[in-house]
Amino acid sequence: MTLEIGTTFLPKVRFDANTELRKAKMRDVEQIYTLIKYWAERGLMLVRSHDHLYENLRDFFVLEDEDGYIVGSGALHLLWHDIAEVRGLAVHPDRQGQGLGRWLALAAEREARDLGVPQIFAWTLQVRFFESLGYSVTTREKLPPKVWSECNRCPFYDNCREIGVTKVLDPQHAYMRARP
Ligand SMILES: CC(C)(COP(=O)(O)OP(=O)(O)OC[C@H]1O[C@@H](n2cnc3c(N)ncnc32)[C@H](O)[C@@H]1OP(=O)(O)O)[C@@H](O)C(=O)NCCC(=O)NCCS
């Protein structure tokens, strides 16, 4: 898919609108798609196709404001018995820095804990954001091969800039090589 910077427009949203966190519904797909595409065009995340969003909709949380706009998205994708990926984290440009990203990331983490997943990770360029949530930078060698499951479909395969960050939720059951 070719991405042209600046071709995606998001509606202007109110900075102070009340906002609710909930699991995503089918009717949210178009807005999630556009929000992620907006940031993908700016090189900050991978674009997600409609196909991907429909197939993985149950992974997603959204933040909906009182005007009906989706102002944030985030997902927890299960990969293996001991690891899950936090992905699709995006906050509307008009709502940055209000704790919404943290809210979404913590929702994904809560779900991982509820499911008994001992470790979560993300590929990201926003290392400090994840560090503020207790994640640490890791190396590919310390993560199970499953975490590269999508790499061969990525347009940046040969030129990957993303950094792996991980958070151990249950040290006893986390992936062996993640243990100190
Ligand atoms: C990264 C992103 C999700 C953060 O959401 P946000 O709502 O703006 O962040 P929050 O207000 O919840 O910030 C939480 C913490 O992270 C810090 N933080 C947020 N973005 C940061 C950044 N780019 N660099 C450094 N620190 C950052 C905040 O200062 C805050 O720390 P504090 O609690 O110690 O003050 C948001 O900036 C975004 O949508 N970025 C574009 C898409 C993207 O890069 N997604 C990540 C894909 S993995």
TrEMBL record:
Alphabetic keyword roster: Acyltransferase, Transferase
Top-level taxon of origin: Bacteria
Cellular component terms per the entry's GO annotation: cytoplasm
Organism: Allomeiothermus silvanus (strain ATCC 700542 / DSM 9946 / NBRC 106475 / NCIMB 13440 / VI-R2) (Thermus silvanus)
Gene3D superfamilies: 3.40.630.30
Highest classification ranks of the organism: Bacteria, Thermotogati, Deinococcota, Deinococci, Thermales
PROSITE patterns documented for this protein: GNAT
Listed GO MF terms: L-glutamate N-acetyltransferase activity
Biological process per Gene Ontology, one example term: L-arginine biosynthetic process
Domain N-acetyltransferase span(s) in chain numbering: 19-154
Protein name: GCN5-related N-acetyltransferase
InterPro entries: Acyl_CoA_acyltransferase, GNAT_dom, NH2A_AcTrfase
Presence of keyword Transferase: yes
Pfam families: Acetyltransf_1
